[in-house]
Amino acid sequence: MKAAIRLSEPSRRSNLRAAFEIGCCLALVLCVLLSAALAHYNAVCDEICAGTLRLHILANSDTLEDQLLKLSVRDAVLTRAAAVTQNASNKEEAVRAIRDALPSLEAAARQALRKAHSGQSVRCVVEESWFAPRDYGSFRLPGGEYTALRVELGSAAGHNWFCVLYPALCTGASGAQYETEEQNALVFGQYEVRFALLDSARALWRAVTE
């Protein structure tokens, strides 16, 4: 009986070692697959950033009056921007149209301010800016470097207003979307970093244990 027990101990240790080695292999596979999934997700985010033209309006201050002025300017600029970008078939064309229309965009903003009896200054410029991730309710955008039409009112020290000029997600344009299904899924809330890798890990576990 003692001999039988002594013979079973090495076998038990061998089984434990095999299980440990399998666990390590599975952990390595999982890390590799997770890294690949994250890299793919980041690539989709970069594609969204590269294909988006944003609108960034900075109010003069956080007073109620200045915040209301910001909204008036927003409406005027959106109307004009929608008109000049309606025929753009990609972000580059939209950016060129906005650059060409900067004087008329500033004029539209000034007219909105004059209508509200405000003498605030206006500055419109197209620039590259970093934006934090933002949820707009009906869609969301990842953080990253975007091209943006920046509209500064007065000292531009108040709360900002952000949206998207291309694709035309802020102007109610029918069918406005990104180029790929994955980009649209991420922006419009249907993106899943599906851990098919977990399915793979389970399949691998079954293969080595059955």
How are the SSEs ordered, and which strands pair?
Layout lengths: L1 H49 L2 E6 L5 H22 L5 H10 L1 H14 L6 E10 L2 E2 L4 E2 L2 E10 L6 E7 L14 H7 L8 H14 L1
Parallel strand pairs: 1-5
Antiparallel strand pairs: 1-6, 2-5, 3-4
Category by helix and strand content = alpha+beta
Number of domains: 2
Described by the principal axes of the CA atoms, the overall outline is elongated
Would you report the number of β strands?
6
Q: What percent strand?
A: 15-25%
Give the helix level as a range of percent: 55-70%
Strands of the largest sheet, in order across it? Answer: 2-5-1-6
Mean pLDDT: 81
Low-confidence stretches: 1-5, 192-199
Supply the number of helical segments. 6
> SSE string, helix = H, strand = E?
HEHHHEEEEEHH
Assembly category: single chain
The major sheet is characterized as: 4 strands, mixed
Gyration radius, rounded: 27 Å
End-to-end CA span: 30 Å
